[in-house]
Amino acid sequence: MAIVALACAALVCSCGSKGVKITEGNHATLDSLSYCLGANIGGGIKQQLGDIPFDIEVVKEGMKGGLTDKSKLSHDEAVELLRTFFSQTLNERRSAFDEVAKADTTAVFQVFETAEECEELSYAFGTDIGTNVRKSNFPIQYYWLLKGFQDAYEGSTELTQVAVMSFLQHYFMVTRPTEAAERSAKWIEKKAKGFGAKQTESGLVYKVVKAGDMEKAAKSDEDVVKVHYVGKLQDGTVFDASRFENRSKEQQEMIRLQQPSLFDEKGNLLEEDEPIEFPLNRVIKGWTEGMKLVGPGGKIKLYIPADLAYGRRGAGQLIGPNEALEFEVELLEVVPAVTEEVAPVEEAPATTEEAPAK
Predict the structure, then answer these.
(1) What count of other Cβ atoms lies within 10 Å of the Cβ of residue 110?
(2) Which in 73, 140, 332, 333 has the greatest CB count within 10 A?
C-alpha cells in the first residue's frame, strides 16, 4: 500500500539486531539519530502528502503509541483504516466532488468530512509510522524523533535537509554496519567457547546435537537437503522458521490473516507443516558448509558469522548489515546430486600395419 510505504520512506535501510531500546530521551540533549530520522519522515510526508490536513498533534500521539507498543489501535487495524480511506473512500469522495464542482465552481473539496474522521485517520497514520520505526529496531529516543518530525513538517528544523541526509547516510553506511560487525564478532567468539561447540577454518561455529547417518551426509554443493529449521537473531528473536509453531506471535497472526484457509475455526493449522527443500548451492555459505557436518536424522546448531550469512547487505527488515545469525536445523533427508555418466570413447586399437592400398 502506497501510504504505508510513504510513512516509512526513511526506513529503506534495515537495521536488524532486535533488543534495542526505545526511550523518551533527555529533553536537554539532542539525539541526532532520532531527530534526523523524525525530520526525514516528517519532511517526506509534508512533501508528498501536504494536501492531506492531518492533525499533527494526533499523528504524534499515534506515533508515540506505535513506538512504545501502546497504541489504542493494533498495527493491522491502523493499516486497514488507512488502506480503506486512501484506496477507496478518498477516491469516491473526489469523484463525487468533481460532479458537484461542475455545477458550483465555488465548492471546496473536503478531505475529511468530520473532525472525528480527521482524528481517527491521523491517529492511525501516526500508529503506522511509529510501529514501523519500532519494528525496524533503531535505538530511538521518541521525544527527539517526534520533535524532528514536527519541525520538518512545519518547515523549521534545527538542521538543514542536507545535514539530516548526510547524518543518516553516514549512520546507515558506516556507523551501523561497523557497530554490527564488532558486536557479531564478539558474539561468534563467545559461542565458539561454549560447551560442545566447534569452529571450522571458515569461522563457522556449530554444535552437533544428534549426528544422524553420516554415511549419507551431503558431500556436494549440488546435493539437495530436506529440513525443518528455526532462524534467530543474536538476542534469540526468531526471524524465520519452517514450522508455524516456531514463528513469532506477530508472524503467526500475519499468516492467519493472509492465509485463513490454512486454519480451522480455532486458529489451528489444518495440515502439518511441510519441510523445506533446497540445493546447498542456493543458500548462504554457512548453510552450505554446515549441512555437510550432520547426517539425515540428525540435528545441528549453526552460529554463522556475518560474512558466511548475508554480509554487509543484510536481508529483509530484520537482518541488518554484518549480522551474525543462529540456526537450529533438523536434517530429514539428503538427495545426492544427479551426475550424468559419460560413456568412455572407444579408441581404435593401435597398429603398426598400414591400411591396405585400394
Answers:
(1) 12
(2) 140
